[in-house]
Design goal:
Strand content: under 5%
Largest sheet: 3 strands, antiparallel
Strand order of the largest sheet: 2-1-5
Number of strands: 5
Bound molecules: zinc ion
Shape: extended
Radius of gyration: 32 Å
Length: 411
């Protein structure tokens, strides 16, 4: 029975980590639909207005060619909408295809009831590959990620395209260009979504553009900087007052003075900040977790397996205590946390299983039944300015004489 419980597959818990797997295509579908809607609205309004204008025109004054020209414009515009909608429909098909493959992959898990099931091994292998591809993509190793996905045949289960687009924009920011990131902000109705989540990304990109104009042209073409500030920064003077004030001051301070407070604004490090801001905004917008899932899975696994003995031979912990590897040779050979590969990684993760309770050393019990560490009681008494030989309860504030306290032994 115990064995059965130990190897039983808990489906719900297994799927906790896999929410983003279904979530991303869903978010992309939503984005795709909203973008299509945006295009239809935009061109629809244009055509409706032009139609109204043409229909209500005075025919005795409007030449026939103009009316025909308007009709042609409307037809061309509608053809354009059709072309755009075809592209949106193809994207929708592609995403449904992804979603279907993912649902199928997760549903496979429900046909297994025990981790001993032979099918489970290959399923969890696929999951590991998915996590590895996700990790590679988030770190910009796009070619390796694509190659791994192709080799394992899991292209539909990973998000190569989304992350490739993201890393392309990230790279362009690191190379000192805001054009691609600004285009991303302006695509479809992303602008509206960004506003909804109070994102400062677009403002910061425009701000950087301003800094670059000031850097290169403040002397030669001061008007260009002013025009940019007026158009893109001035409307946000109340939302970002600090940045706006600095932008004004920047005009007076040329780059190159390392002592000035403005040297930070001229610094190259701002591009890294912008790249990180873009990445986090992109991930939030698409409901992608901020860290690679491999990290989450790994720290959960390490935490579950870690025992207090695992780090006892290392200098950072209590020296001389018996360890897994000296006192229990058998444990060392089977304990993954004691292995050289995982030992360092596991050092800072918490224990899932608390086999020890933590109490202050040198506990003393007050007559009211409460117990505190001696050092803390003494410190508190000193701070409270009590007479020698008196202590004060840290919580209730009652004062007792030192000789009424009892030492507490934990057995
Ligand atoms: Zn161990």
């Amino acid at each position: 029975m115990g064995d059965h419980v130990g190897t039983k597959l808990d489906h719900e818990n297994h799927l906790l980590l896999d929410q983003p797997l279904l979530r991303l295509p869903f978010e992309l579908l939503r984005k795709n639909f909203r973008s299509a809607h945006f295009e239809v609205e935009k061109d629809g309004t244009f055509v409706k207005n032009l139609l109204k204008e043409t229909a209500s025109a005075n025919y005795s004054q409007t030449p026939q060619e103009d009316v025909l020209k308007n009709l042609d414009t409307m037809i061309a515009r509608m053809r354009g909408v059709k072309r755009k909608l075809t592209a949106f429909a193809e994207e929708e098909d592609r995403l449904y295809h992804h979603e279907e493959a993912r649902v199928k992959h997760l549903a496979e898990l429900y046909s297994m009831y025990s981790v001993d099931d032979v099918k489970y091994e290959s399923w969890s292998r696929t999951r590991l590959d998915r996590l590895l591809v996700d990790y590679l993509l988030r770190h910009g190793y796009n070619d390796s990620a694509r190659a791994l996905a192709e080799e394992r045949g899991i292209e539909l289960l990973v998000d190569v395209d989304t992350f490739e687009q993201m890393s392309r924009i990230r790279k362009s920011l690191l190379n000192g260009s805001v054009t691609e990131a600004l285009a991303w902000c302006a695509a479809g109705d992303t602008k509206k979504e960004l506003r909804k989540m109070d994102s400062n990304l677009e403002f910061m990109l425009r701000y950087q553009q301003y800094i670059e104009i000031v850097r290169s042209k403040a002397r030669t073409k001061p008007n260009e900087a002013l025009a940019h500030a007026k158009k893109y920064l001035f409307p946000y003077r109340e939302t970002y007052p600090h940045e706006f004030r600095q932008a004004c001051g920047l005009l007076a301070i040329p780059p190159g003075d390392a002592r000035s407070v403005y040297s930070e604004l001229y610094s190259q490090a701002r591009w890294e900040m912008l790249a990180d801001l873009f990445t986090s905004t992109h991930n939030t917008l698409l409901s992608l977790p901020p860290v690679p899932l491999l990290h989450v899975a790994l720290s959960l696994g390490l935490s579950a397996l870690k025992t207090p003995a695992c780090h006892s031979i290392h200098p950072a912990s209590t020296a001389g205590a018996p360890s897994h590897s000296t006192s229990m040779l058998l444990a060392a050979s089977v304990c993954p946390i004691c292995s050289t590969e995982l030992n360092e990684l596991a050092r800072n993760v918490p224990y899932a299983n608390h086999s020890k309770s933590h109490v202050e050393p040198d506990l003393l019990m007050l007559p009211n039944g409460r117990a505190y560490g001696k050092a803390r009681l003494e410190e508190y008494a000193r701070k409270a300015g009590l007479l020698d030989g008196q202590v004060k309860d840290l919580r209730t504030g009652e004062i007792f004489s030192m000789d009424r306290l009892k030492k507490v032994y934990i057995s």
